[in-house]
Amino acid sequence: MLSIKEIAKLADVCPATVSRVLRHPHLVSEEKRDRVNSIVKQTGYVPNNLAVNLRNTKTYKIMAIIPEVIRAYNNVIIRSMQDIAIEHGYSVLLGDTQSLQSREKAFADMARTREVDGIVLFCSRFPFDIDHTVDLATQLPPMVHACESTDMLGIPKVNIDNVAAAREGTEYLASLGHKLIGVVAGHSLTPSTESRLAGYRQAIDSANINYNPNLISTGNYDLNMAEEATQYLMSLRPRPTAIFAFSDEMAIGCLSALHKLKIKIPEEVSVLGFDGISYGPFLNPALSTVAQPLQQIGQACMQLLLPQLNGEPMQDCNRVLPHELVIRQSTAPAPVY
Amino acid sequence: MLSIKEIAKLADVCPATVSRVLRHPHLVSEEKRDRVNSIVKQTGYVPNNLAVNLRNTKTYKIMAIIPEVIRAYNNVIIRSMQDIAIEHGYSVLLGDTQSLQSREKAFADMARTREVDGIVLFCSRFPFDIDHTVDLATQLPPMVHACESTDMLGIPKVNIDNVAAAREGTEYLASLGHKLIGVVAGHSLTPSTESRLAGYRQAIDSANINYNPNLISTGNYDLNMAEEATQYLMSLRPRPTAIFAFSDEMAIGCLSALHKLKIKIPEEVSVLGFDGISYGPFLNPALSTVAQPLQQIGQACMQLLLPQLNGEPMQDCNRVLPHELVIRQSTAPAPVY
DNA sequence: ATGAAAGCGCTAACAA
DNA sequence: TTGTTAGCGCTTTCAT
Predict the structure, then answer these.
(1) Where does A162-293 sit in CATH, by number?
(2) What is the dihedral of CA B57, B58, B61, B64, to 10 degrees?
(3) Hey, which CATH number is domain B50-159+295-321, 3.40.30.10, 3.40.50.2300, 1.20.1250.20, 3.40.50.410?
(4) The model's pTM
(5) What's the CA A39/C1' C4 distance, rounded, in angstroms?
(6) A:10-69 Cβ neighbours of strand D under 7 Å
(7) pLDDT per position as a tens digit, B180-236
């Protein structure tokens, strides 16, 4: 692997000139510029970015830390982040943590060790140890906490109003006449799940439906577990006539379980999802859902991160974006017996 | 951001000692070790890895370059790569190229610029310009080409036998009595698609079915386009009684289109997918598919990459892994009229 | 066991 | 316009 020195020697100039040709060509005479460029081409020389970045204390890389990169839900978010990042000269690297705390920390540390300029965190756990006696912003790298952020942290956050979103979803089901509304919740302890459960409860209460904790099952945001949870819900007597799954992926598990049980959707049981993944319209039946503004989430993350990357101080803000109830074919009025 | 020098000053030792405490603590007396450690803890000092990596010419990072990270198909592959990488002290960073050549090159260049130690390439295009008059291995960073590699390159490759896999899938459909077997192909020009088309053709010929190019449609490995392609196939007269989609995701599009057309699966039309994504069993009906050995693919990638990261020369090998026909509910004997 | 010093590869200020 | 030089932050000889 050639260094700038050797290129300089080959082109019979000093290393600084090679650097100039590569970064500020207008500062170099045409003659030397051509000489250097031809050597660079011949040798296939590429600067060592570790050195460049060390020198410039800047990597132009952003780390997006994601519990399961594969979840359909992340698709649009990642795209919109990446598009904006690239416009501004940054690359987005994805870190898939598989929900493991050790991996969350490892990826997050890439910002503290200067291997990336900033991070966007989609996990619920906070990957840094914080000394609350000292100013937060000085301890933390440029970062944004998205989708699973609590309100206790003094950092930029991007969220939807999970309480309201789940409340409206539940209200919609109640308005269809459903009285027994089962829930397939996500990970307990995650802020999103807690908030959505709270919203569900609010809607149940204000619809004067008796709150029944047996109707709450947990699917851990996992398709397989959601299928099992649905089997459990369908074993209850009286049986729920609607299921609210707190993610579209879990809703797929619900649909699958109901199909296997030969329960008609939505005639016998309605299914409402959450997220608005792109598969939704293609499922059978097409999935009604509480859609998140995925593209806006990605955009907001970048809007809050980029200023920090330019040296502006971290702000304690919480960008709350609008959700939307999308009604397709998987929900219908409650059956009358 | 503190540097090692300032830590050294605070602990009243020299920078080298701080470095030793962090990397080879046994070389330092207990007294100084404690002093340094306590300062490190107090200040939250973290070494600048750009400097460390520059000095050590090693990053312990691997870049996985993926056309669409979100594709369900990548899930298991990514996991198995990551598990092995971590065992060996490496992190895996994911680069989502959205099938854009510029992004493929940008991520791949991170290896040439030393920001990562090696790459695993899942794209069909080769992101480096090669001078064929010179030894390949010296021009390329440690790398493995997986899933979409052609046989012209002198680098380690991981693949399944796409020709055989598609042939067997088609033979299976033919054995069910299907004579009109539609195809929803992937990107034309990608090696995987070309090979699978060849395999399809082989099976058609050896089953003495008349090859009809009108039955080949293209879905670009995209769910929406696959839905359109299926609509087209269903508009043909006589109509195909089976559809072979070259990815499970496209098969979802097929299912969706058929549902909308009220065509019964598998009674009227059989659908066979390709890949073996984890959603498969949850679809309605559960999807029959030609499964790839996703976990083995990830493992093989790491097995071929890790030696290169340890300085061993690049080998021109092609690891071909076994596929498997998985029969579920979406395929059945051809209808008799 | 510890410190001094060189150097990883690059860039930018400064001088010429 | 070009070269010289210092230094980004770290690690590792080498010397003590």
Answers:
(1) 3.40.50.2300
(2) 60
(3) 3.40.50.2300
(4) 0.95
(5) 38
(6) 12-17, 20, 27-29, 31-33, 51, 54-55, 57
(7) 999 999 988 899 999 999 999 999 999 999 999 999 999 999 999 999 999 999 999
